[in-house]
Design brief:
Blueprint: H1 7-43, H2 52-55, H3 58-93, H4 103-132, H5 140-168, H6 177-209, H7 217-266, H8 269-273, H9 277-327, H10 330-364, H11 367-383, H12 385-388, H13 392-414, H14 418-421, H15 432-456, H16 476-535
Helix pairs in contact: 1-3, 3-4, 3-13, 3-15, 4-5, 4-15, 6-10, 6-13, 6-15, 6-16, 7-9, 10-16, 13-15
């Protein structure tokens, strides 16, 4: 009995563990929240007629805070599985400096991330959207009341949709609605990943191709620099001529004003008052025409001068960019291109291999045999842990790299697709609705990422915590099989489209250019012969 802790000590230990886990979770949430808020402030669009104080009012701050919380939870969802794998590897090291890190803390972080993603997706972002659609002349409480009323109506519709979905998918009534809601979110995210992942890898390969430089790259840049300098000298000469013209026009206007003053001084007052209306109108029309022609010419010259200054500034910017490109080493860029090209293709091949292996395993093994094999692997793993320990760190790093590449390619491919390309964020041009839509898409992808990665077999990490909701489906085996088949098919089609179809298009384009070049050459040759015959 002396070895067992007393009830008071057990309660104190539980309280200490609870406080420690919540403090660590809050600190881990605070960092992505600050990053998310700064990112949204950079992408946020500010109107030119509004001041900084008008943009920082209570309404915009509420929407910004809610969207920043959603983006922070999306970042947590993306980093959850790789960080958990790294933390598990660190726990196995049994270091004294990592006594605060344990499996219970990881389980708490999984639960908090799951709850935060669902609360952000189904509560915070709808509130931000309905709040932004309310009448801006109302008070805060009136806007909040209308927003909550709209959210209540949407919640009733969502409950009906969940009930119909449970009936269609033949689920038990004992299954919670939150599980069904997360399952539907995971299915939507898996469909997005299915279409976006091959496209994202193709876009990454295209970006990597821009890194390589041609052998005559420096000579081309030197020619461009010389051409820009020649253009700048020509425009500077034109600017000098415009300045001389403006100075001469100003001198002529001063002389014209002096002549008018002397002419008015010569005329007597009686003569000036005895002028008829017709002579006065003729005199004013002549002077008015002169002044209007002068102002028209001066305004035109000033406009041309401003355009020339803009052209010179543009040429100066191009010269700076060209000099920066000249300072870069072609060897380092070509080596970087080679390394990245090999890395992305190795990742692509490993991803295809993992999906193919899991597809074949799913076809050959039934669900009961798969569970028995996992139990057998768990028993054999205790005996072979010393043999496989050298591959533990390498395997963890490779899986983390694979998941990071999977996530980045999915996000890039999502914004390359036609439905989502319209809401692609641009620096300083993102509105309120566009910001909410982007955060919603990222939350859907991050909520489905742990389940999608496990279904595709990209990791040996079997525990996905509350995200593992596919067990409620009766036909989950066939859904996973169809998803793996579709992903593999899309990858193969993307590979063929990137290399085979792209190469054929390049050959076709070169043939068309060569044909047009030969046609232009023959036309010019015939024209030259015709001219020579005419001369003769």
């Amino acid at each position: 009995m002396s070895g067992q802790p007393s009830p008071t000590e057990a309660e104190e230990s539980q309280w200490y563990t609870l406080v420690r886990e919540n403090i660590i979770a809050f600190l881990l949430f605070l960092s992505p929240y600050i990053i998310s808020y700064i990112t949204l402030r950079r992408f946020r669009r500010f109107r030119s007629n509004d001041s900084e104080e008008n943009e920082d009012n209570i309404d915009n701050l509420i929407i910004m805070f809610l969207c920043a919380a959603g983006l922070a939870m999306a970042m947590a969802g993306f980093l959850l599985l790789p960080c958990t794998m790294a933390a598990t590897a660190l726990i196995n090291l049994q270091s004294e400096n990592l006594n605060w890190l344990d499996t219970k803390l990881l389980a708490t972080l999984w639960n908090y991330t799951f709850i935060g993603c669902n609360v952000s997706l189904f509560a915070l972002l709808p509130f931000a959207y309905f709040y932004s659609e309310t009448d801006q002349r109302w008070t805060f409480f009136a806007k909040a009341r209308e927003t909550l009323f709209n959210m209540t109506l949407v919640a009733i519709l969502m409950y009906g949709f969940i009930y119909v979905s449970k009936s269609m998918l033949q689920m038990d009534d004992s299954i919670k609605d939150l599980v069904v809601l997360n399952l539907l979110t995971s299915l939507a995210g898996s469909i997005i990943c299915l279409n976006a992942l091959p496209r994202g890898y193709a876009v990454i390969v295209r970006w990597i191709g821009y890194i390589s430089l041609r052998p005559n790259h420096r000579r081309f840049l030197n020619d461009e620099l010389v051409q820009n300098q020649m253009d700048a000298s020509v425009w500077e000469e034109r600017l000098e001529s415009i300045n001389r013209l403006l100075m001469s026009s100003e001198n002529n206007s001063n002389n014209h004003n002096n002549d008018r003053m002397s002419r008015s001084a010569v005329l007597p007052s009686s003569t000036a008052t005895s002028l008829t209306s017709s002579s006065q109108s003729l005199y004013s029309s002549l002077n008015g025409d002169l002044s209007q022609s002068y102002f028209a010419s001066s305004e035109g010259s000033l406009l041309i001068r401003e355009r020339i200054l803009a052209i010179l500034e543009n040429l100066e910017t191009q010269n700076r960019q060209t000099q920066f490109k000249l300072s870069q080493s072609p060897l380092s860029r070509n080596l970087s291109f080679l390394v990245l090209f090999i890395f992305i293709h190795i990742t692509w091949l490993v991803l295809i291999g993992a999906m193919s292996f899991n597809l074949i395993k799913g076809i050959l093994l039934s669900e009961d045999e798969e569970q028995q094999r996992r139990k057998l692997d768990a028993v054999l793993g205790k005996q072979t842990s010393s043999v496989l320990s050298m591959f533990g760190t390498i395997g963890t790093l490779s899986e983390m790299t694979l998941i990071f590449c999977f996530t980045i390619a999915t996000i890039i491919g999502t914004y390359s697709m036609s439905p989502f390309a319209k809401i692609r964020p641009q620096w300083g041009k993102v509105g309120v609705q566009q910001m909410i839509a982007n955060v919603t898409v990222l939350l859907i992808i991050s909520s489905s990422l742990p389940a999608v990665v496990r279904v595709l077999g990209l990791t040996r990490f079997e525990h996905t915590g509350p995200y593992d909701n596919f067990h409620v489906l009766k036909n989950r085996f066939w859904i996973g099989l169809v998803f793996r088949t579709g992903m593999l098919f899309k990858f193969v089609i993307g590979l063929l489209d990137l290399y085979v179809v792209g190469s054929l298009q390049m050959v076709r384009r070169s043939m068309i250019n060569n044909h047009a070049h030969h046609a232009n050459g023959s036309i010019s040759y015939g024209y030259a012969n015709g001219q020579s015959n005419g001369v003769r």
